[in-house]
Write a structure and sequence with these properties.
Elements lengths: L20 H17 L8 H8 L7 E5 L7 H4 L8 E5 L7 H13 L4 E7 L3 H12 L5 H7 L3 H6 L7 H20 L1 H8 L4 E7 L6 E3 L4
Parallel strand pairs: 1-2, 1-3, 3-4
Antiparallel strand pairs: 4-5
Helix pairs in contact: 8-9
């Protein structure tokens, strides 16, 4: 018999009560303030926490963000530790099948009440997509395929000046949040029921501040 992963079972789910969406958002906001005020205070007691979550998890927020090595959600949100965030990462925080499946599992089976789609300042993937649009740059290999979902967002941006990349980063976060809502019947239902919120966000590499944009 071939081993399989039974998505009908709430594997790893915890009986711990979930936060309400607004409570989860407030917790992220306070954590980011802590990070900006005193980065050194964000070290986590990993060893003790590891034992506590080894057999179950109850993450209270899902974060889709970029693979950029400077963007570390667990630190950016105030030293969040093991078992708290359900994180999906790829270059340009692009919504694809893998990401949607991850988010659906996090909301429906792990009962995370908040989804944050977070772009960041000077994103390389978005910059590459903007170069394709503004300069006709050809991207080799899988990098070109990776940036394709960002191209329509860049094409829709009318300001091709100095703020072209930054505005596209913001728009890409909104686009990702909207795609999650429209392409996932599971998430859409949970949003309609008031159990989940989707919030685009923007992380400033220079200041450490996360700007939570309006709810989708």
């Amino acid at each position: 018999m071939t081993a399989g992963f039974d998505m009908t079972m709430p594997a790893f789910a915890s009986n711990a009560p979930a936060l309400l969406p607004d409570e989860a958002l407030a917790k992220l906001q306070e954590g980011n303030k802590k990070f900006v005020a005193d980065t050194e205070a964000c070290a986590a007691n990993i060893s003790k926490r590891r034992q506590g979550v080894a057999k179950s998890q109850a993450p209270w927020a899902i974060v889709l963000t970029c693979s950029d090595s400077r963007v570390v959600p667990e630190l950016v949100f105030g030293g969040v530790t093991l078992g708290e965030l359900f994180v999906a990462r790829n270059a340009g925080n692009v919504v694809d099948t893998d990401v949607l499946g991850t988010i659906e599992y996090g909301t429906e089976h792990l009962h995370a009440p908040l989804i944050v789609v977070m772009g960041h300042k000077r994103c390389g993937a978005v910059s590459a997509a903007c170069e394709v649009v503004s300069k006709g740059t050809k991207l080799d290999g899988s990098i070109g395929k990776m940036t394709q979902p960002i191209l329509p967002v860049a094409l829709a941006e009318t300001d091709r000046g100095d703020n072209f990349v930054d505005k596209t980063v913001h728009a890409n976060a909104f686009n990702g949040a909207e795609r999650i809502l429209t392409e996932s019947a599971i998430v859409s239902r949970l949003v309609e029921e008031g159990k989940v919120k989707i919030v685009p966000a923007y992380y400033d590499l220079d200041t450490g501040v996360v700007d939570f944009l309006h709810k989708v």
